[in-house]
Design brief:
Structural class: mainly beta
Strand content: over 45%
Largest sheet: 4 strands, mixed
Strand order of the largest sheet: 3-4-1-6
Length: about 140
């Protein structure tokens, strides 16, 4: 679970502020796009949820929280294996690994993920993927 929050006030926050923020919102239900308010020393502080994975969840101890005030917004992703190729569809991004296909929305949310035995080739068009697998003997059409 991951949250990227944008402070809605003009103050430079130290990196360790994330720990205070997590303690204040732990156990709360969070949705992407909403504004979260915490009380710190009697002052309300507001943060916009600019990214949440999944889009709605309850904050736990293992939730990764990041603060962002950057314009433009940048989101970084890290995977356990190397990305072999990237395909851009009309409204999604397809990442191809050695034996897996992962489809993300434009804003980075997972919409499809599957491992394929003998993954040979992946091609895409406007809103469809063609996956050749099984040592080149099988074909799967995926409509996104």
């Amino acid at each position: 679970m991951r949250l990227v929050l944008k402070p809605l006030f003009e103050v430079e926050l130290p990196p360790e502020f994330v720990d205070i923020l997590k303690a204040k919102i732990k156990g709360r239900e969070i949705k992407e796009g909403e504004v979260v308010e915490i009380d710190l020393l009697g002052k309300p502080l507001k943060f916009e949820v600019i990214y949440a994975e999944p889009k709605e969840f309850r904050v736990r101890e293992d939730t990764k929280i990041e603060l962002s005030s950057e314009k433009p917004l940048t989101l970084d992703f890290e995977f356990n294996k190397a990305v072999r190729d990237v395909i851009f569809l009309e409204k999604s991004i397809v990442l191809i690994f050695e034996d897996e296909v992962l489809v993300l929305t434009e804003d980075g949310h997972k919409i499809y993920n599957e491992k394929f035995e003998g993954l040979k080739e992946v091609r895409g068009t406007k809103n469809m993927l063609v996956v050749v697998h099984g040592e080149g003997k099988k074909l799967r059409l995926i409509y996104i």
